[in-house]
Inverse folding.
């Protein structure tokens, strides 16, 4: 089977090596060196441009190199009926859990305050609080979000979780659906977003919803930038309603140098790297899905395009 690889950020050689180790017979091509387009049956891609998939007339499987599929399901030129799978890897969950726990602990232990005070040579004592006195609200309890929520529980925070459908997670007080969102937000001192971008989540965090967070709340977003109204976020930070934010995802990436978020010292910008797919651990499931497709079976970890994630 021929698989074409496309990514501006992932290392093609690492993926070639890992996939060939799992399936020595795999023909691995790196776009634009695809060979005859009609021989391509699978694509492994991160953020391929609109219209990309249409060029392969015999495509049978699309594998997204991450967990988010918004740029694929949002491509109106996508040939219908081709299964889309995501990588579902415990290592990705571990990496996301580690990133979000780092963000939450940094906000909870006031490291932002100390970094800003350091710049002024100012001794800024803040009396530490007990972990259980702080409530962390996790928006998105999926494959990655549930790992992060478990990390917060392990640290002793009071943890709330919000998702589309009801969930039961150890140690997490769960909320489901739009009707439950105001009650969830009102208690989330550190609000962590890890939602997919879908028509329902686009622009979810408006000025009104930021106002529902407790005054002085801290906000983390590692899901997708467009789930947040960025102007409303800047306003909430400027007014002091939000004390701090850590943002890994933005409407426009890279975040443009003139963007007002760069001017706010209480905002930490990270360049969309909370978690990545790791070739060594993800190769086996990709090869398994290629075999399933070759046999005419449905692939594992398929995304439901109508749901958008
Ligand atoms: P999943 O698809 O496994 O889970 C998504 C979660 O979001 C589910 O809990 C789902 O609810 C919830 N959700 C979806 N729509 C709504 C809605 N309308 N209202 C309330 N909850 C909703 O995703 P993952 O946990 O694996 O990853 C989440 C997102 O993180 C990805 O889609 C991707 O965009 C982003 N991501 C970012 C990375 C980075 O480096 N910054 C790396 C990897 C992923 P339910 O449980 O009811 O289905």
């Amino acid at each position: 089977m021929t698989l074409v690889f496309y990514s501006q950020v992932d290392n093609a050689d690492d993926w070639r090596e890992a996939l060939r180790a799992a399936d020595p017979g795999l023909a691995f091509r790196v776009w634009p060196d695809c060979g005859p387009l009609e021989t391509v049956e699978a694509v492994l891609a991160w953020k391929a441009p609109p219209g990309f998939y249409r060029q392969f007339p015999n495509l049978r499987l699309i594998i997204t190199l991450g967990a988010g599929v918004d740029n694929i399901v949002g491509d109106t030129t996508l040939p219908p009926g081709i299964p889309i799978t995501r990588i579902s890897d415990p290592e990705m969950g571990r990496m996301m859990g580690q990133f979000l726990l780092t963000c939450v602990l940094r906000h909870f232990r006031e490291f932002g305050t100390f970094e800003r005070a350091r710049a002024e040579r100012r001794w800024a004592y803040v009396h530490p609080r007990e972990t259980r006195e702080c409530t962390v609200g996790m928006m998105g309890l999926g494959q990655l979000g549930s790992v992060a929520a478990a990390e917060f529980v392990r640290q002793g925070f009071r943890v709330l979780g919000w998702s589309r459908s009801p969930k039961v997670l150890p140690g997490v007080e769960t909320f489901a659906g739009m009707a439950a969102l105001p009650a969830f937000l009102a208690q989330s001192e550190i609000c962590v977003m890890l939602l997919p971008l879908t028509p329902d989540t686009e622009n979810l965090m408006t000025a009104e919803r930021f106002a529902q967070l407790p005054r002085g709340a801290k906000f983390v977003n590692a899901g997708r930038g467009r789930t947040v109204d960025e102007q409303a976020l800047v306003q909430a930070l400027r007014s002091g309603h939000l004390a701090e934010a850590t943002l890994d995802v933005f409407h426009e990436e890279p975040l443009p140098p003139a963007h007002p978020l760069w001017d706010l010292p209480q905002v930490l910008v990270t360049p969309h790297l909370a978690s990545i797919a790791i070739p060594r651990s993800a190769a086996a499931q990709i090869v398994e899905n290629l075999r399933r497709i070759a046999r005419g079976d449905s692939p594992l970890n398929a995304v439901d395009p109508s749901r958008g994630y």
